[in-house]
Amino acid sequence: MNAVAEIARDVRVLQVRDLRVELAPEVDVLSGVSFGVVAGEILGLVGESGSGKTTLATALLAHARQGARIVGGRVEVAGESLLELTGDALRRPRGSLIGYVAQDPATALNPALRIGSLLRETLAVHQVRLAATAQHQRIVETLEQVGLPADPEFLRRFPHQLSGGQQQRVMLALAFVLRPRLIVLDEPTTALDVTTQAHILATLRHLCKSQGVAAIYVSHDLAVIKDLVDRVLVMYAGRIVESASREALFRQPAHPYTRGLLAAIPDVGQRRPLLAIPGQAPAPGQRPQGCAFAPRCPRRGPQCSVLEPQLRPLAPEVQVACVDPHRQALPEPVPVSAPALQLAPGAGAVPLLEVEDLNLAYDRQVLFDVSLQVAPGECLALVGESGSGKTSLARALAGLGDNAQGRVRYAGQPLSLSARQREKGLRHQIQYIFQNPYRALNPRHTLYQTLSAPLEHFFAIKGAEARVRVDAVLQRVSLSPALADQYPHSLSGGERQRVAIARALICEPKLLICDEVTSALDVSVQASILALLRQLQEDGLTLLFVTHDLGVVRAIADRVLVLKQGRVVEHGTLDQVLDRPEHAYTRTLLENSPRLGG
Questions:
Q1: Which of 45, 180, 512, 571 could bridge to 99 as Cys pair (CB 3.0-4.6 Å)?
Q2: CA 60 to CA 50: how far, in whole Å?
């Protein structure tokens, strides 16, 4: 840790005391939240969806989402109590004292303003009175600090002309250009590839340590923050259940929930069993008496359902809210070997899918002479940075891409690159699962309507038989048939993704194309989805799995194909590519992938 952070160690920037946020009287989203952050310190805030992370993050800016109210507690930033301010008095510290970086820069950045205008407007709104020369110098310095060019050509660009990583760096620049004392980041790297994510995290850590800025980093993935933060708060059902230094938490997590999160995270270093946490977190107003985690906890006892445990010291730099916390270090994980698979070329069998010299162009060429084979029952992972052509390739093979040229064979027969030109009896055999289940499901259709439509279209099945099949496929993806009459908005993100998988399965596919289907999911939900896909593969389903997460690749793939700028630069078995990579690009991806071990 550098000298700036050491000098500022005793300067408390943020102090939160007994913060409480309610949806309705006595229906709390957060309760009893207290903690502090000093200058230069980065605090990780982790937990599943619904744990209260984002609610806490926005409450630090004295803001609550629609329908919620901050009803108690105190939030002090640099000695100023934000919850006592209103109107213009509150708008001033937002930005100047505390900055905020949203998860999705594409929606957070004004698409009508150029990058230079965005930065100048930010300074003007917060009344940072600088002479024109000094203002320009502040903008140039900030852009250089976040790793962006500061030339006139870049400042004239609009947000849509930037990559996702550049957009996220602009968000960092907009926060740091005001020189705040505290910055709050809400899942800022979730949708970024591993290389861009590593650069963003390194930039953030450098800025916080060099400028003495305190930071709150919200994430659902402990592996992402392992090498970033100084301290971690673990949240569950609106309460802090564990507070520990980074070293203590990853060496000896005390709360069963923390251990559950770590056991669900895939690690690029080795394949190991992924254990999803059973059940779901309670919704606001439905907390059970006693410990809220008790219904899901393997260590629960009679006392856990009586009194709610409070955060108390367990060891130096460790506090835990549990009557029976773990006091031993984590055991070494037991690696699992990837199952042996007879690949088509060596076995002489006909591959299920063969691609030769596939090219694809829009306004420019994005795929160049791509060739691959997928054996029956195999999982082939397509990996690479954003813009490498992974999704373009997947969509082309699903028949969803335009202007694709090349030779494709399916089960030994020629396959058209247009889904509309494929025979009806063949279309149902190749199914595509989109990355975003929120957009992939019709919000006006019940789950039954969504799942029964393919049955009628492909198999002319309706009525009672359709109901039986819908119930069966819901059970196959571990959902209750009672959900069939619900609408997508009433489901969690993990449940929506399971419905998207169910819609593909009900078509009786032989090849399932999965496009980043776990990138936005909690680690526990991700573990259950990966286990489901593994089971489907063991039942004979073939998978083409698109992802930028090499930990997920380690958990599910048999072979790996690496794409860079539309070209295949490496392919081979899982162990060959991840353990003995030959191409420098593959080695860079591996070096930038977050790891739990090492």
A1: 180
A2: 17
